[in-house]
Design brief:
The protein is mostly helical. The chain is built from 20 helices and two strands. A hairpin with a 2-residue loop joins strand 1 and strand 2.
């Protein structure tokens, strides 16, 4: 046989093999298709080359079996490293890493369609790459339909939890509810499904049914959102003392967390512990940085309900949001002035409140609101006009009847954020190996 055949047996075998395989470099398997080999080089392939290729194929098979098993984690760590160092989700680096991972996962599924880990990871990568929103759903539901009788309970729960998340991105609440219930029924080890279903039920005014689910999630993870939301659910269900005790423990662990301390202050008030309630309000007002206007409203309401009228108004006077107060908060501000006997200032602040609302009303017709359609403008104008009337009515009741506007405190839940089990950004991987790019 010629050493340099022209399309002979060795070249034919090489074409059967289909590609030249390059061993993994820096933790990443790479391949070059046979069709990419220059024609003159391909024609020089001889039997010794083929022997090398076959050995490489055997090594590659063993390496890819290793990577395709526990070392999905290698790719995940590599991806998370890129995301940590490049926060911009649309950066070229992250897109490049995601595309490489997608190629690897698609190849894994061709080799083993029942690889649930690869399937779940691939669906999450499709989501990150903003590929057709229904594609992640399709490849996961396909697994349930085709392999449902052979999938373990843990893998089914993983599929159901992820499917609920993908349907939530598509605003399909019916399927969200269905898949979360299916996931929870399988008693998953992770808290994601329990917590997500609990929040879904609570958002639909069913805190009683949600409470045991919040408790399950809190028993599975010590993460703050699970512990805090369980306490908030206890509070909403009337178990205020238990909620207070839980939040008191969290206060020691999360000394600088606004929401935890506010929750404890609210529970203290409703258990008639005004000393601690006011102490918490003072600490929140003086030591903690507010993340949003809503935080200021909450602390002001805690002061108000504890009858700390001077502190209540001082908080608003020092904050650059007074003109944006809604009618209910303006009414409480005006009553505080009445309760402190500041009649002259009460009249001035009433005039200021009305003027602020009228300025806001006029602004809807000014520059920056031209894109609003007439129906939306009409609704906004109607709401603002209603607030002006409410402030006027309440002001009259305050000065003539001594009327004290009511306030009721609540504990809002912490947002769940991402409960996708295979989210490239949030999943927990125990391996520490980080492949280099």
């Amino acid at each position: 046989m010629s050493a340099q055949p022209d399309g002979g047996l060795s070249c034919w075998i090489a074409r059967i093999i289909g590609r030249i395989t390059i061993l993994p470099y820096n933790g990443r398997p790479q391949r070059r298709p046979y069709s990419a080999i220059p024609a003159d080089a391909a024609n020089k392939i001889c039997l010794p080359h083929i022997a090398v290729y076959l050995i490489c194929c055997i090594i590659e098979f063993r390496v890819e079996s290793y990577i395709g098993g526990a070392h999905l984690n290698i790719y995940v760590k590599w991806l998370q490293k890129a995301m940590l160092e490049t926060p911009d989700a649309s950066s070229e680096r992250i897109i490049r890493v995601l595309k490489k991972y997608r190629t690897f996962l698609e190849r894994e599924l061709v080799a083993d369609p029942e690889n649930i880990a690869a399937r779940c990871q691939l669906a999450a990568v499709y989501m990150e790459l903003q590929i057709d929103g229904k594609k992640p759903i399709h490849i996961m539901e396909q697994a349930i339909i085709k392999y449902g009788d052979r999938i373990s309970k843990d893998d089914k729960s993983r599929l159901y939890t992820n499917l609920a998340y993908f349907y939530a991105q598509n605003q399909d609440q019916e399927h969200v509810h269905y898949y979360l219930k299916e996931a929870v029924s399988l008693k998953p080890q992770e808290p994601n499904a329990d917590h997500a279903l609990a929040l879904y039920l609570a958002a639909n005014a069913d805190v009683k049914t949600a409470l045991p689910l919040f408790a399950k999630a809190a028993s599975k993870s010590a993460d703050l959102k699970y512990q805090y939301n369980h306490a908030a659910a206890l509070f909403k269900s009337g178990h205020i003392a238990t909620a207070r005790d839980s939040l008191q423990k969290l206060c020691r662990e999360y000394a600088d967390n606004y929401q935890v301390h506010y929750g404890y202050g609210v529970c203290a008030y409703y258990k008639n512990d005004l000393v601690n309630a006011v102490y918490i309000a003072d600490r929140l007002a003086n030591e903690m940085r507010f993340a949003a206007d809503m935080d200021i409203y909450q602390v002001a309401d805690l002061y108000y309900i504890c009858r700390q009228y001077t502190a209540h108004n001082r908080l608003y006077d020092l904050a650059p949001i007074s003109a944006r107060l809604d009618a209910a908060h303006w009414n409480r501000y005006l009553y505080c002035l009445f309760a402190m006997g500041k009649q002259g200032e009460l009249s001035q602040k009433y005039d200021l409140a009305i003027a602020a609302k009228q300025d806001e009303l006029r602004s809807f017709w000014g520059e920056g609101y031209d894109s609003r359609n007439n129906a939306e403008k009409a609704e906004l104008i109607k709401n603002l006009s209603g607030e002006i009337n409410e402030i006027t009515r309440t002001y009259q009741r305050i000065i003539h009847e001594g009327y004290a506007p009511k306030a009721k405190l609540d504990l809002p839940f912490m947002a769940d954020g991402c409960y996708l089990l295979d989210c490239p950004r949030h999943q927990k991987i125990t391996q520490t190996f980080l492949p280099q790019e």
